[in-house]
Design a protein that fits this description.
By secondary structure, the protein is mostly helical. The protein is built from six helices and no strands. 85% of the residues lie in helices and 0% in strands.
Length: 165
């Protein structure tokens, strides 16, 4: 979904640039609720205020709601069909690919400086270690830690240059 949103709002509509979208994604990821809805709501508000955010939110939620409602009515019967079950396995793989693709695109947008690359590498290593050890570590905690590390680095580097803010 993030890749699709990036394509629409950055490449096609030019409502924001890649850096702006990365900032919006960081905000949307750190607020409660699904990221696609948060992204759409924020971008809708940027473009047309309250009614833009309302239209964007309804535009993202309504199709998924209708599809899920239809699927839920027939899910047990559908999942009993082995072809549908195999299709869902393929869909899960495709979704995993899209999530990884969005992550790679965000990584490529990072400034090519030691600090962002180090934080990214540390987060990636931590993610793998926690998964291997089956330790539950919420994404909100990861986001908060990233913010704390970034702020700490900024404060320390500002003091080192003598231009504390």
């Amino acid at each position: 979904m993030i890749s699709h949103i990036r394509e629409e709002v950055v490449e096609k509509k030019h409502w924001t640039d890649s850096d702006g979208l990365s900032d919006i994604i960081a905000i949307a990821e750190s607020t409660p609720g699904p990221i696609a809805i948060n992204l759409a709501t924020y971008i809708g508000y940027q473009q047309a205020g309250f009614f833009g955010s309302l239209a964007a939110t309804v535009g993202v939620v309504a199709p998924a709601f209708v599809i899920m409602l239809c699927i839920s009515l027939f899910l047990d019967g559908l999942m009993a069909n082995r072809y549908v079950a195999y299709a869902f396995e393929g869909i899960k793989c495709a979704v995993a690919f899209l999530i990884i693709k969005a992550g790679v695109e965000m990584f490529l947008q990072l400034p090519k400086k030691p600090f962002p690359i180090t934080v990214f590498a540390a987060a990636l290593i931590a993610l793998f270690v926690l998964e291997i050890l089956s330790v539950s570590f919420g994404s909100i905690l990861f986001i908060a830690l990233g913010g704390i590390v970034g702020l700490t680095f900024f404060i320390i580097s500002s003091r080192g240059r003598g231009n504390e803010k």
